[in-house]
Design brief:
Elements: E1 4-9, H1 14-30, E2 33-38, H2 41-48, H3 57-74, H4 89-101, H5 103-118, H6 127-136, H7 141-148, H8 151-166, E3 174-177, E4 180-183, H9 188-195
Helix pairs in contact: 1-3, 1-9, 2-8, 4-5, 4-7, 4-8
């Protein structure tokens, strides 16, 4: 069994945020490598005919209650974002661009965006808010915006999303160990078990 976890993620998913808080620890404990693969969840939904559980009111209410239970279990902050769902196209291009062009700052970049969305509940659909968040964390908003318009970055995000769908991804978070897919932050115990 491979000792690498490929983590397909989109910032706009609260379940993905929870997985993101736990995977580094699981990988450290099992001597495994964590590979972050940004994808566009909206593109995955469109390609697979899937939709967010939040589109079904009763399921959406339950999902957020359940995610809150997991956040307490994990000992991490989670706040329902009143602006959910978020259009993450520009954000995920920025994440992909940071990974490609500035890998040394990738982790801090993703940290600040996940925190803004799922701890502070900020509206990252608004460019001014995004700029404020980036500035607060030492990133130049104009440089980040330039990344989102880079054709190679756009192509990389599109390729990641298409590859995810070809591999059987239908939502986020999705994690692969070898060719085995684990979907959902509530399957992290199986991820840890497979790595051990």
């Amino acid at each position: 069994m491979s000792k690498t976890v490929e983590f397909y993620f989109d910032l706009g998913s609260p379940a993905t945020y929870l997985a993101y808080t736990q995977l580094p620890k699981i990988c450290a404990e099992t001597g495994s490598r964590l590979v972050y693969i940004p994808m566009l969840l909206g593109g995955v939904f469109k390609a697979t005919g899937n939709a967010s559980p939040a589109t079904i009111p009763a399921k959406g209410r339950y999902m957020f209650e359940d995610l809150d239970r997991y956040a307490r279990r994990y000992g991490v902050a989670l706040k329902f974002n009143p602006h959910f769902p978020i259009n993450t196209l520009t954000l995920m291009r920025a994440v992909t661009g940071m990974q490609l062009r500035h890998p040394e700052r990738f982790q801090a970049f993703v940290d600040c965006l996940f925190n803004a969305l799922w701890v502070e509940g900020r509206c990252l659909d608004e460019p001014a808010t995004v700029a404020a968040v980036l500035t607060e964390h030492g990133f130049n908003p104009e440089d980040v915006l330039a990344l989102t318009n880079d054709e190679a970055v756009k192509a990389a995000l599109k390729d990641n999303t298409e590859t995810a769908v070809k591999r059987g991804v239908f939502g986020a978070p999705s994690m692969f160990i070898g060719n085995q897919l684990f979907f959902g932050q509530d399957r992290l115990d199986f991820v840890a078990e497979a790595l051990r």
